[in-house]
Amino acid sequence: MCALSPAGLPMKGPGSKQRLIGYARVSTDEQATEAQEIELRAAGCETIVVEHGSGASRARPALARLVNTITAGEVLVVARLDRLARSVSHLLDVIEDLSAKGAHFRSLRDPIDTSTPQGMFSLQVLGAVAQLERALISERTKAGIAAARKKGKLPGNPGVRARRPEAMAKIAAARQAAYSASVHATMNDWLPTVRRMRPDHPWDDVVRVLNQKGARWTEARLRRAVRWLVKEHLADTALLNKSPPRLPEDRLMTLVAGIAASNPDHSMRDIAIQLERLHERTPRGSSKWSPSSVKNLLDRAQRAGLLVRESSTTT
Rounded to an integer, what distance in angstroms lies between the CA atom of residue 143 and that of residue 152? Predict the structure, then answer.
């Protein structure tokens, strides 16, 4: 059995370079993944991520974390396509996320391997099938609406049109459940940064640090997600406290500290480039950042206790 981290993600052993990462899923806790794990290990997967979740739902936290942490050149492997995706469109979304990170996907029992020309051809066929499926559904929906109107009926849920309390409550509950699943599936990617920076840093600085890693947060969306976690007792209420007013140079110091803490492998030159991309000006008002300016702010942040340990950031 492979080693799993506390978050359910694979842990690399010393000196090892993982290439194949298996993903095994069953619908209920009573079902077992041993058969899938045997196939995956036989295919060369030294690491296997296991998840229990319904095939009808896209809310799969373990899969989301795996896709977010997989690196270029690694291959996500499943025994069968239905273990990964609930539909063709879902499958294509996952593969698109993997491709964006330079990773590949392989299904052992299906002709899908995005690292080979034949596998990519099969994937393109699936994409065409998915497009045709969407077009047919759209045509059937339009035909159904037209037929209903000829009979004097209005499309949609009668309870929603009449704004009946029970119908509106069901819709609200469904939306809340979908939102909760989305936040829960991604919280491990952004909540640690929020915990490090809030409430000492204003929300716009937190958003900038998160977005410079490729996220697409807005202040309103991030605050809403944090409020939900606080309501569900998954985050400290102090995160929502008002941040103290800061001088412009203090704000730069905390911003640089946040970037350094969230990207420990970044050099001071890397941080300078990030600050220029964020259109931040130096304490002297210049638009060009030098590693020495970053170092001065990091040294101040250390003395102020904003960095937990001495930074190993290099120029």
Answer: 14
CA 3 to chain centre: 22
CA-CA distance, 257 to 197, in Å (whole number)? 9
Strands 104-107 and 112-113: antiparallel
Q: Indicate the domain borders of the chain.
A: 1-155, 165-240, 248-303
Architecture of domain 1-155: 3-Layer(aba) Sandwich (3.40)
DSSP letters along 245-293, please? Answer: P--HHHHHHHHHHHHHHH-TT--HHHHHHHHHHTTPPPTTS-S---HHH
Which residue in the list 16, 27, 115, 292 is annotated as catalytic?
27
Which among 47, 44, 45 is positioned nearest to 4, based on CA atoms?
47
pLDDT tens profile 4-41 = 433 344 444 444 445 799 999 887 655 678 889 999 99
- The pTM for the full model equals 0.41
286 is known as an active-site residue: no
